[in-house]
């Protein structure tokens, strides 16, 4: 089986696997690695087809989860941002014994807006899919700009995301389109009610892609999980508010 790009850093006594979002790569975590490496042994991953994990076709959510799991430590805390949150959640469902805790960041079990469920309008995601075929670099840049809208450091945060994308090979249009298809169709709301491991959900109050209105809905649906909303953050709270983000994560490392 072809392997994805994987790097291990840190001296902590617990493993933490970090999964990035759509269009990006593991470089996005550079801003918090220095703070986390004393608490965790960090596993930085480029998802199949992204960054340094080139040569993979578009995959289903299940295929992506299995590919990542194949190289993972036997037991770890799994943290997934946005699309990566769906992958980490699928791993928790597929191999719960391998997941000591699940952390989702600015992620939704169902990204598409539905009746009585806030999310991204399906036509917006379809529009991104259409634009990919015409100019996928510009489409990715537009998507990145949406992720930092409204924060006090929006321009600087968007630049950081863009630098992470441009520092490595861009994913192909097929892989990007496959990722959008997962965002458009995945719905893990019901199946995730069965999770037994600690489950922490982190959100940005200003997030335009994962509306904060889903938080109380999931608090009710998933009473076994805990949610934290960062008041001045948008879709990338670990970039705009790294200290508060790492502080929230420390609770997973040292539960009360």
From TrEMBL:
Which residues catalyse the reaction?
A: 82 (nucleophile), 207, 235
What pathway is this protein said to act in by its record? Cofactor biosynthesis; biotin biosynthesis
Q: Which reaction does it catalyse?
A: 6-carboxyhexanoyl-[ACP] methyl ester + H2O = 6-carboxyhexanoyl-[ACP] + methanol + H(+)
Q: What class of enzyme is it?
A: hydrolase
Keyword Cytoplasm present in the record's keywords: the answer is yes
Q: Which GO terms describe its biological process?
A: biotin biosynthetic process
Q: Name one Pfam family in it.
A: Abhydrolase_1
- Tell me, what does this protein do in biology? The physiological role of BioH is to remove the methyl group introduced by BioC when the pimeloyl moiety is complete. It allows to synthesize pimeloyl-ACP via the fatty acid synthetic pathway through the hydrolysis of the ester bonds of pimeloyl-ACP esters.
The protein depicted here goes by the name: Pimeloyl-[acyl-carrier protein] methyl ester esterase
Can you name the source organism? Phytobacter massiliensis
- UniProt gene name: bioH
